[in-house]
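Hello forum,

I keep getting stuck at the same step: I have a sequence, I want structure tokens, and every attempt I make locally crashes halfway through. Rather than fight my setup again tonight, could one of you with a working pipeline run this one for me? It's a single chain of 186 residues.
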Amino acid sequence: MREIIDFKAIDEGGPQPYRATFEVGISDLERDELASVGSATIEVTVRQGDLDGEYIADGTVHFTAGLSCFRCDEPYPIANASPFHVRFRPRPEPSAENEEVEIIDQDELDVEFYSERAIPLRDLALEQIQLSIPMKPLCDENCLGLCPTCGANRTRERCSCESSIMDDRWGSLKEIREELSKKKDV
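Reply #2:
Ran it on my machine without issues. Output:
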């Protein structure tokens, strides 16, 4: 099992397939919405690109995880197969005033710049997992979340709290609405 994408091997032998399985911990991903993470398997084929020093990686990362719902904070499991396409290019020399590499074209959004001619498969897998986890994961699209008053999970149970909690900042608009309603009735 090769755990490093070696660009020299691709230069010498053509496209190379890579496959590896890694144990992934919550601390590897540093995401608050993660309750647990299982192992991750990456399968990728890397070939030379059209540009000098460019390599193209096409593959899939399979992983399982337990996420916490953004609305109700209940844990729920996911199993994900995330396909990806990444282009690796040599890191350009930074200009004197700016050490960051600036992406100037939308076609460069899938480009990663390298300074060493070897890429750890684990790093690529972790990055793809990060991109696959939703920013605000939901256990169900119709999740009602927690009651802001009593904390009950409104998807599973009804509470007796006032259903319409009004923000005091909207009070002036409520008064205007009532006045307009009175004028309409006259």
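The first strand starts at residue 4 and ends at 6. If your local run keeps crashing, start a new thread with the error log.
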